[in-house]
Amino acid sequence: MSDEPQPQQPAPGKRNRTGWRRIVPTWRMTLGAFLAGALLLTGGFFLGYHLVHIPSANALALKQANVYLYTDGSVIARDGEVNRENVGLGRISQDAQHAVLAAEDRDFYTESAVDPQAMLRAAWNTATGKGKQSGSTITQQYVKNYYLQQEQTVTRKVKEFFIAIKLDREQSKEKILEGYLNTSYFGRNAYGIQAAAQAYYGMDAQDLDAGRAAYLAALVNAPSQYDVIAHPENRPAAESRWNYVLDGMVEQGWLSETKRAGLKFPPPKESTNSTGMSGQRGYLVQIMKDHLIRNKIVSEEELDAGGYRITTTLQKDKQNAFVDAVNDKLVDRLDQKERKVDTYVRAGGAAVEPKTGKVRAMYNGIDYVKQYTPNATRRDYQVGSIFKPFVFAAAVANGSRTQDGLPITPNTVYDGTNKRPVQGWSGGLYDPANEDDRSYGDITVREATDKSVNAVYAQMAVDVGSDKVQQTAVGLGIPSTTPELTPSPSIALGVATASALDMAEAYATLANHGVHSDSTMIEKITKNERETVPLPERKNRRAVSREAADTTTAVLRGVVQNGTATAALGAGRPAAGKTGTAEEDKAAWFAGYTPELATVVAVMGQNPDTAVQEKLYGAMGLSRVNGGGVPAEIWAQFTREALEGEPVSDFDLELQPDAERTAPPTADTGSRPPTTTPGDDTPTTPGPDENAPRNPGPDDSTGRGRTEGGTNEGAGGDTTTGGTDGDTSTGGTTDGTNGDTTGDTDSGGTGSSDGENPGTGGRGGLTGFIPRARGE
């Protein structure tokens, strides 16, 4: 045989592949590759499914705003880095749910968690230049929003795929849709459909109709582009998308063709986003946050995390009425270009419901973004003579007596001589001056309250015991930590620096017949809509006897009817109140109440650059700003508007025995003629700075005259007064050593130039004046 290799013969039935056929895989090769690929994909799927776990929510998804509400449910403000308020599916209208499904995933309820065909189609369209498309189902989009980040990477898409499948097995479709609606971004810093409904239409998600819901659904696709207010040039595109959504709702049977045909494009409002802190909103949010943290209702860390829905006790109509009153009676009268002092003017106030202790309204400043300090709660201005009623209430509550040992009643006669040294005080000389150094001689407590006579009330504080006055004030609602709330005769003249809210709470206790209701600003709090946050138990307690509170009310009614607060008659309701002015006219106050509402108003002076307290001489073109002027006018307008439509009720008073009995006329010892007439706003030159409340100095009273307190005795109303020995100042001059001795600038009658003069003649001075019985 030959040694040459012999050609191999093909096996029977087998042909060699030649030419182009050699590069085409055989069916065996194709089948093998398919099986290998399927095995690889299956293995990869099971490996990925077991390796990829559902993670915790990302930080952004958990962040929410805290929503602050009026009692009627309308929004005050949203506070937080992320404007989101999670709501349950039950608080999202059916139209809103269907609109989003029509826009994003019409087969949501019937399809699986992922749609490979849609993903492939989206990838092809993106690759061929037809625009980027996600191809994601709502479940996948929710996974991206809630669990993952927004980066466009293969790794994120793979995780999204597997998490969506797992999530679809563990959660219901309704729960996934709820999560999606709460995490989607709608533009205008609104995360979630509730925030979006407020941002674009000023309503809650549960109130969205088909037209508005379709517009919000359209926004999800391109939030910034489809905002037709920010980009009016894009309105045609936005309307096209809106129509697409509505057509989809009709196609799915979620909207009738008839209703669809009647819909018109609903343009959003320009400014419905209530998350801003301008105006009163920022003040109210700050005060509420401080209240929650201080009372350990919610911690600062919890508030920062967000998700709280806080219903306050504030009533929207009363809040608006407060702002209107301040604007009308104060802000509109300022001319900051012409008068530098007008740049110092600040205002604050608070209104409390006596029977419940609920804070119904507050005024804090012209704008939180311009003036950050809340004027309703600041404790750095002396309250002046609005503190005096606490002295009288303490006297009645404690059955106090004068230095002569006789009961203190509205008809007790005191010596109202200017700069009269108080008697019975062991802490040293204290001889406060009256307003304008005016002397009144013998004067009843009722009249001394009408005229706000410092000499009388400083002596009364000693007769009662300044420590008891302090205790009574705290019982009524003044915090024990209030600066300068110290037991000394000067406590009567309001050297303490309580806030307007503190004073409103205390006056509300008087209005409530001496029963103090723990004040509150919060009606209800929920967390993430599901959890109700417990609030501290609120209790009522008796602060002073009903007799003490009601007799004080009767006396304060006289201040409104005959005294320094006649401007408060403008409320058109039975009212009681007291005026006050701080040291050097740096603040003017009016505190008043009706049976329904106790309100305190303060006008303060503060340098806008240095924050130093400033005198208000000349503000608004007036010589002085007193409690009976602008503050009482604000109070009257606010009270009238706040209680509009409510029945007018009178005070139901149970008075101290003999409180209705009146004293006969006493002589007017005032030494100065009148300088203004009622309602005269003609500026007058302010006198020297003699309004500083002064704590008693060292004991230098040896050799000084002593004046005993007196009382009105006898059924016939005969008056007996204590004797006067030694030298007592009655003139209008100021002693050089002690000339800075009063914390009050309120007076009535003739000889007053303070703007609180109730009039001249029979009602203005003591001559011919016969006090009327109060409490009738």
TrEMBL record:
User: Can the keyword Cell wall biogenesis/degradation be found in this entry's annotation?
Assistant: no
Ranges of compositional bias, category Gly residues: 711-725, 746-767
- Report keywords, A-Z: Carboxypeptidase, Glycosyltransferase, Hydrolase, Membrane, Multifunctional enzyme, Protease, Transferase, Transmembrane, Transmembrane helix
Locate the Glycosyl transferase family domain: which residues? 75-249
Residue ranges for the region (Disordered) are 660-776
Matching entries from InterPro entries are given as: Beta-lactam/transpept-like, Glyco_trans_51, Glycosyltr_51/Transpeptidase, Lysozyme-like_dom_sf, PBP_transglycosylase, PCN-bd_Tpept
Which Gene3D superfamilies does the record match to this protein?
A: Biosynthetic peptidoglycan transglycosylase-like, DD-peptidase/beta-lactamase superfamily
Q: Does the keyword Nucleotidyltransferase apply?
A: no
Transmembrane stretches in the record are: 31-52
Species of provenance:
Streptomyces hirsutus
Write down the SUPFAM superfamilies for this protein, in alphabetical order: beta-lactamase/transpeptidase-like, Lysozyme-like
Low complexity composition bias: which ranges? 673-689, 726-745
Residues forming the Penicillin-binding protein transpeptidase domain are 351-609
- Recorded protein name is Penicillin-binding protein
Q: Where are the annotated coiled coils located?
A: none
Q: Which reaction does it catalyse?
A: Preferential cleavage: (Ac)2-L-Lys-D-Ala-|-D-Ala. Also transpeptidation of peptidyl-alanyl moieties that are N-acyl substituents of D-alanine; [GlcNAc-(1->4)-Mur2Ac(oyl-L-Ala-gamma-D-Glu-L-Lys-D-Ala-D-Ala)](n)-di-trans,octa-cis-undecaprenyl diphosphate + beta-D-GlcNAc-(1->4)-Mur2Ac(oyl-L-Ala-gamma-D-Glu-L-Lys-D-Ala-D-Ala)-di-trans,octa-cis-undecaprenyl diphosphate = [GlcNAc-(1->4)-Mur2Ac(oyl-L-Ala-gamma-D-Glu-L-Lys-D-Ala-D-Ala)](n+1)-di-trans,octa-cis-undecaprenyl diphosphate + di-trans,octa-cis-undecaprenyl diphosphate + H(+)
Q: Which Pfam families match?
A: Transgly (PF00912), Transpeptidase (PF00905)
